[in-house]
Amino acid sequence: MMGLAQERHYGNYYRLLSRVGWSGLTGARILLGLIVTLLLVGQPVVIGIDDTLERRWGKRIWGVGIYRDPVKSSHKHKVKSSGVRWQVMQVLVSLPWSQRVWRLPFFQCADVLPSHA
Question: Which terminus, N or C, of the chain has the lesser number of Cβ atoms within 10 Å?
Fold first, then answer.
C-alpha cells in the first residue's frame, strides 16, 4: 500500500512502530478531531463500525480465535475459521467532489478476548 514492498529494510518500519511509546487511543482521538473539524463543518457526525476476520493460525499469534466466517458462511451453512477479528471505527463523510459517501477509518483494534464459540 505504501509502495515499499521492494524496500531493502522494510522491517525497520514495523520495528519503529512497535518500539515507540505511543497510544493508539490518543492517535485515534486526534485523527477523529481533525476529521470532524476539517471535513464535517455543519454536518452530522456518523460513525460506522465494521468487523473483519483476518484468517490466521499459529501458536504465537496474539488474539487468534475461532469465529464465524461471514465470507464463507450463508444463512443455512455456518463456517468457522481461525483468525483475528478486527473492529474498525470510521466516520462516514460526504465530500463535495464525490457522489458517494466515504468511510474514513480512525480507530482499529483486535478482540481482547477471543471467542471460541
Answer: N
